[in-house]
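Good morning,

Attaching, inline, the backbone tokens for the sequence recovery test we're adding to the shared suite. The designed sequence is right after.
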């Protein structure tokens, strides 16, 4: 018979099951405690470890039993123990303590470990604090990475701060967010004066528009590392030239700003400007030189360069000979020499000066003295560069002198020149120290002022006579070599042209002296030199019409170009004062004002209208200046006059053609039956004609579009197809009733 189960038995079963469940729960909790990925420990009120899980023990290199019962402070870095104990006491007292972010524990092997600690108080049923339960997270790797990051930042910041170039960062608004010391030094501003400021405020006003445009375009169509040159205003006011290749920085596809390495190119710009000025000076020198400057190609002798002096000297225009060989210009008898020197120079060899006869446009030949040398580029001779001077007049003068000398030799006995025979006298050392007159001609006294000289020495008559006369005559007597020279006789206050020769054979001490008193000639030559210098400077700097006036505005000289330009002869202009014959009556006041400015020293070029002798007006540019004597006094005024009639005609013709072209385009747009659209290079619609608007109007209703809607659709399709050179048509379907 089965025993009946009682309530007592049910209670025992329930308790047994509860105990089993509790045991299983405790085992699961214990296993979770031991195997948790986070380090746990429980401290009693004295700071001793009551519990610690295996995770924490392993983290520190201990077994669990080696840590339980030990003070937690034994495991903390000694330098942090006092602070840790203070925090523990505050925590036990229930005071709010922030999370510990930088606690350092010592592992069993002595190494350090960085941890983050979170604490929770444990209380009993009476709310009394019984201990502290803590979790620890190992952040050693994170700390190491952070320290390496800090070191790296310090290293790269040092590189940035000491870089030879300026470095800056700006945000998407153009505000400086970083500048290095070099950039501050380049601009003259302190870092705090730049950070937070917009970069535009430091740009030169003339560069702002361009730089702002590049900056704004970068957000629409970014250009990778664009090259920019710009100027900034230094804090002290001077201009600094800079260049940069800014680099955009983005985050998740959004442009946040730019980093830029900025280089000071002020010295480079100054060098470029100096080079430009040097080239300009060279160009002006070539253009204004009185001699012909030319260049020949080394390949075939083609003329590649001629300056304006070629036209003035030869009468040919430069256009008639540029691009043509030089040989036809050379006299047939001089062609061999010309070719030989050209070939020498083409081989890179130097040649001495040489003379050639050159054909002028009139058919006559002038004599040119040539100085030529190789034109070298990249270590290769590419041509002949040379200067040719017209020496025709000099040659004629030399020929006249030669004939004159022959005539004087023939008429020697009847000549007016002074002549004498002297006998040299020497000191004991054989040095010539005096000479005795043994023969003179009638002109002697006139040229020397010495009377009754026969038998006397020059020292008796002129005690302070210059020693160089004795040296020269002594050498002639000693060597027998004749000599022609010009020398001063200071003690006699005269200047002589002398031809000395020995009379007799070796051992003779007699010297024949043929001489002229050229004192007046020397004075005249000095005056002529000054006059010639004036003329040469005038010609060298002014290649157009020349007018020379005295201080009252009266013509004292004009050149042939001015006469040809105005139609007045030289005789009609010389001696004529204000107003000048070529001044139009209606322009008297304007020209008089310009002339008065010149008298005051204002030499600005001025554009005026002059009048030819036949009454025709023509435009000119007048460039005035003045001439001073040695004392700095103004002795005359001169002006170059350039006829700019052809230039004015060309400008008017250009204006007329542009106006005609504009009218043609307007007529095309007005009358062409087809629709016409004009786009800019940026594919912006610039213009459309009436025929296009009528076409749109006619089809809009039939296709179900509003006129402006169809117009925009056609324009968009044309723009899209312009990249396809084979496009023949575009198609537009009827708009569906739904609007699609």
């Amino acid at each position: 018979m089965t025993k009946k189960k009682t309530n007592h038995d049910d209670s025992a079963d329930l308790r047994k099951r509860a105990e089993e469940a509790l045991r299983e729960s405790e085992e699961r909790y214990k296993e979770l405690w031991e195997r948790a990925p986070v380090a746990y420990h429980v401290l009693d009120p004295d700071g001793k470890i009551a519990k610690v899980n295996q995770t924490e023990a392993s983290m520190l290199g201990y077994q669990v039993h080696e840590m339980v019962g030990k003070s937690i402070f034994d495991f903390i870095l000694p330098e942090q123990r006092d602070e840790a104990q203070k925090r523990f006491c505050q925590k036990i007292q229930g005071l709010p303590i922030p999370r510990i972010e930088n606690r350092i524990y010592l592992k069993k092997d002595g190494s350090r470990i960085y941890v983050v600690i979170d604490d929770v108080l444990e209380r009993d049923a009476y709310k009394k604090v019984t201990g502290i339960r803590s979790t620890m997270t190992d952040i050693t790797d994170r700390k190491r990475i952070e320290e390496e990051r800090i070191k790296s930042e310090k290293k790269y910041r040092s590189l940035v701060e000491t870089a030879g170039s300026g470095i800056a960062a700006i945000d998407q608004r153009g505000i400086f967010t970083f500048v290095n010391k070099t950039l501050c030094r380049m601009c003259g501003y302190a870092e705090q004066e730049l950070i937070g400021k917009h970069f535009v405020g430091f740009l030169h006003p003339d560069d702002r528009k361009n730089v702002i445009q590049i900056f704004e375009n970068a957000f629409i169509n970014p250009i990778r590392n664009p090259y920019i040159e710009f100027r900034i205003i230094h804090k002290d006011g001077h201009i600094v030239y800079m260049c940069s290749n800014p680099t955009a920085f983005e985050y998740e596809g959004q442009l946040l700003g730019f980093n830029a390495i900025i280089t000071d190119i002020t010295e480079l710009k100054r060098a470029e400007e100096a080079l430009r000025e040097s080239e300009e000076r060279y160009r002006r020198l070539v253009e204004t030189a009185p001699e012909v400057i030319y260049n020949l190609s080394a390949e075939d002798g083609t003329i590649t360069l001629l300056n304006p002096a070629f036209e003035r000297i030869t009468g040919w225009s430069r256009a008639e000979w540029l691009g043509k060989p030089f040989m036809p210009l050379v006299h047939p008898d001089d062609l061999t020499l010309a070719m030989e020197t050209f070939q020498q120079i083409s081989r890179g060899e130097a040649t001495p000066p040489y003379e050639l006869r050159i054909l002028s446009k009139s058919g006559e030949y002038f004599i040119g003295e040539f100085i030529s040398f190789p034109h070298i580029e990249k270590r290769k001779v590419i041509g002949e560069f040379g200067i040719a001077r017209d020496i025709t007049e000099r040659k004629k003068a030399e020929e006249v002198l030669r004939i004159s000398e022959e005539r004087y030799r023939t008429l020697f006995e009847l000549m007016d020149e002074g002549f004498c025979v002297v006998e040299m006298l020497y000191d004991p050392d054989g040095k010539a120290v005096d000479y005795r007159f043994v023969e003179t001609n009638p002109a002697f006294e006139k040229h020397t002022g010495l009377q009754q000289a026969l038998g006397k020495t020059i020292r008796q008559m002129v005690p302070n006579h210059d020693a160089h006369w004795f040296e020269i005559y002594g050498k002639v007597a000693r060597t027998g070599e004749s000599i022609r020279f010009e020398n001063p006789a200071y003690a006699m206050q005269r200047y002589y042209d002398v031809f000395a020769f020995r009379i007799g054979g070796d051992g003779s001490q007699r010297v024949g002296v043929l001489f002229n008193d050229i004192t007046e000639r020397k004075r005249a030559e000095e005056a002529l030199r000054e006059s010639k210098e004036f003329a040469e400077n005038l010609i060298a700097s002014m290649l157009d019409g020349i007018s020379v006036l005295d201080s009252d505005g009266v013509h004292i000289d004009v050149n042939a170009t001015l006469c040809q330009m105005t139609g007045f002869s030289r005789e009609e202009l010389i001696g004529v004062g204000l107003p000048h014959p070529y001044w139009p009556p209606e322009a008297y006041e304007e020209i008089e004002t310009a002339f008065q400015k010149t008298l005051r020293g204002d030499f600005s070029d001025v554009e005026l209208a002059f009048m030819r002798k036949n009454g025709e007006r023509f435009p000119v540019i007048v460039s005035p200046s003045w001439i001073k004597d040695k004392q700095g006094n103004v002795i005359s005024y001169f002006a170059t006059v350039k006829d700019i009639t052809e230039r004015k005609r060309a400008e008017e013709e250009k204006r007329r053609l542009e106006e005609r072209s504009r009218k043609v385009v307007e007529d095309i747009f007005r009358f062409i039956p087809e629709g016409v659209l004009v786009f800019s290079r940026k594919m912006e619609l610039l213009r459309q004609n009436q025929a296009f608007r009528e076409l749109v109007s006619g089809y809009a209703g039939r296709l179900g579009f509003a006129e402006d809607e169809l117009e925009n659709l056609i324009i968009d399709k044309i723009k899209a197809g312009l990249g396809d050179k084979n496009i023949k048509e575009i198609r537009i379907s009827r708009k569906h009733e739904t609007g699609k």
